[in-house]
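All the exercises in this workshop are built on plain-text protein records. A learned vocabulary of local backbone shapes supplies the integers on the structure line. Once this layout is familiar, the rest of the handout is easier to follow. An example says more than a description, so a record of this kind follows:
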Amino acid sequence: MNQVRVRYAPSPTGFAHIGNIRTAMYDWLLRKHFGGSFILRIEDTDQARLVPGALEEIMESLRWLGMQWDEGPEVGGPHEPYFQSQRLDLYKEAASKLIKNGSAYYCFCTPDRLAEMRKNQEAEKKPTGYDRKCYLLSKEEINQNIENGVPYVIRFKVPDSGTTVFTDAVRGEITFENKLLDDFVILKSDGYPTYHFASVIDDHYMEITHVIRGEEWISSTPKHMLLYESMGWNPPVWVHPPLILGTDKSKLSKRHGAVRFLDYRDKGFLPEAMINFVALLGWSPGDDQELFTIDELINRFDISGIVNHPAVFDVSKLEWMNGVCIRNSEPDRIIDLCIPFLKDAGLISDALNDNENQYVRTVIALVKEKLKTLAQVVDHTEFFFKNELKYDEKGVKKWLSKDYVPALISNVIKHLNDVIGFTAENVEEAVRIAGDELNISGGQVIHPIRMAVTGRTVGPGLFETMAVLGKERVIVRLKNTMNETADIIAD
């Protein structure tokens, strides 16, 4: 464990999501903890299903999290190339070796013939699998087919009996009956390898020490063990973290949060919150600690902490963690990250003068403690930037419809006009005096004035809010409130 070599090997047939980013994160944490290399390898052999832009987004996801790879695309390394589509000669050479030692064979069966075979097996209620028709071909028949250009695949010959046993670092020893395995294809008719074959060949030549991948790959591991054995190679350590489920314990789906990973960035989650949250989806530190810095995760991460029961993806917990990270972050960093959300919402312009910029920064700083995501800054600050308020209807009826409110607002305006230095302290003094003069105090003053100034029943501190809005805005809003809300009160 002094020098680990781990690989994240995504297929750019789709965009990165929580599941495969967790795999990359465990790879990266293991490498950072023990030293060694974190390798990014692109498994792009399924050319027909490649999604434009998927590779770039996968790499951008890693960069956003700060998980830079040591070897791979745009970085290089001693085992180039790191795209499987550029390593075809290596796979063909390995397949030839397996044919020569009797572990693999040519198969010339057409898709129609294979479909008919499976149909008959199902009709007879027999296990489906290749019937080894081509395994029985003579060398002469094989050579003749190849010379005639008959399309073929290369299949691995699974032993007829016995078992294949491997040790999973999470679940211990696992045994599979060989007779239940099919003679699987290792090289397709287009010359491209299957996932099973290419991953084993590449993991060996790239000297991978630990293969971390989802629980769903456990059933494929005996195939990989047989390939290692047939090639005369030592297998890596197998690590299969548990499934990730939704809060209802069903398979993770879009309604639970299984979206494009970078959507979390676009919704205003911080990278350190995502790392903290995702790391705990299948790994336990051994105690009740839930909040970690990245350095703490690196120091404490070990394979022994990976659990063997499903993890639950809970968006509310992620939002809580993100809120903590926002509050613990430097204010200027959060302000800088929030500004693009305000621009996208049309609340502020792309080009701000110095005064406008200072106002925006002061507004964001005021609501920072309330945010669970950066995107929420739009809703929390909208009333700071729009002259026309959206009044909360229930709040209007509860607070602005009271008989004493017109007199209260009028008296507050009178005292605010006299304020010199529109600070939160001075504003509070003026408002409370206005209420005391009418024998009104506490919430009976605060709530109606908050509604009149912001249109809302909740928000940051009232007097701090009024100070940021400024004297002119506050007085205009107080004067407009009764006219603006009269219709709602009447209903």
In short: The mean pLDDT is 95. The two ends are 73 Å apart (CA to CA). The CA atoms of residues 242 and 309 lie 6 Å apart. The first helix runs from residue 18 to 34.
